[in-house]
Amino acid sequence: MLSIVEAYQTVHTNRSLCNNMLRFVIFLGLSLCFANYGNAANISVETKNGRQVLIYNGAVESGDAKRVRYFLRNRRVDEVWLKSGGGVLMEGVQIGLYLREAGTMVKVKSGDSCASSCTVAFLGGLIRTIERGAKYQVHAYSGVLYGIPRRRGESQAQLEQRVLSNPQAYLQAVAKEQMRQKGVSWASRLFVYYRLMIQPAPRARLYSISNSSEANGIKRALARYGDRALQLYLEKQMPVDVARIQKEGISAAHEITMRLERDAMQNMLVGLNALNDQNMLKRRAPEAIRILKIMFESRILATSDLSLETLSEYGFTNVPIPN
Q1: CA atoms of 188 and 134, how far apart (whole Å)
Q2: Which SUPFAM superfamilies match (predicted)?
């Protein structure tokens, strides 16, 4: 059987057949690459008023960033339209980085909504605009919204036994993880991402976030604030939380876990403001901190609609407000 390349070569003298084959190769490549993304967003490139528009419609799932990058690198894309209720936060960051690398114009169209991690991806657009009648909705993220994560191979009954048999050990582990590790890591990465994305003269380039020297430096500085918050929690609040779990059970443990997650990020915001006051952060730091504050002061179970005026003032959009 001829390979695709060999088949293409046999018809190279016929321009029409060549064009048909090329379109088939692109279609086949897209189909094979994305055959296993049945539950992910629908991503397509369509012609709208003579422009090639990448339309992202659906939940943000792991693997979507690679799909977006494939389209951006293999198809002509004049602009990107986002329509999503959100999903995986870090995937939203990665989508945004690829959008910035491609130098794309990103829109949320009238009647559509962009929420949660979609709003994070949106900031990657080189040119960013929200049409009147569109919704741009933020809320805090949570890795424990739907329950306390189970360990590998652990049943729900085993999880409850582990938590309720020794609530002090459980809370110590969660507080340490949130305040020393996850809070520090998320705050440093998201801060750097927001700061880079909202520069007044944006450039089309691929930025590094997770292991950048800037993010690592901020992570080291924020670790001190995490240590202080952890020590204060262990001494002051944990005994109260232990007593509540002993009285109310696993539902109380879940609520306390979510609170520790929120408290860790609030503490990181305090740390970032302190670092900014000490002139330890780079240009546009106050604006990036303000975006983080908007995100994490919103409740996880409710979204906050941002007006076009707020979006423009805070740097979410960077074109004049549409009439």
Answers
A1: 30
A2: ClpP/crotonase
Helix (H, G, I), strand (E, B) or coil at 89: helix
How many CB atoms neighbour CB 68 within 10 A?
26
pLDDT tens-digit profile of 17-70?
A: 444 443 433 343 443 344 344 457 999 999 999 999 999 999 999 999 999 999
Distance between CA atoms of 230 and 317, rounded to whole angstroms?
37
Cβ-count burial of 171 within 10 angstroms (0-12 exposed, 13-18 middle, 19+ buried)? buried
Rounded Cα–Cα distance for residues 298 and 31 (Å): 39
Superfamily holding 34-139+303-323:
2-enoyl-CoA Hydratase; Chain A, domain 1 (3.90.226.10)
H or E segment to which residue 156 belongs: helix 156-165
If we measure between CA atoms, which residue out of 128, 97, 283 comes closest to residue 204?
A: 97
Say if CB 315 and CB 291 are below 8 A apart. Answer: yes
What are the sequence ranges of the domains in the chain?
A: 34-139+303-323, 156-300
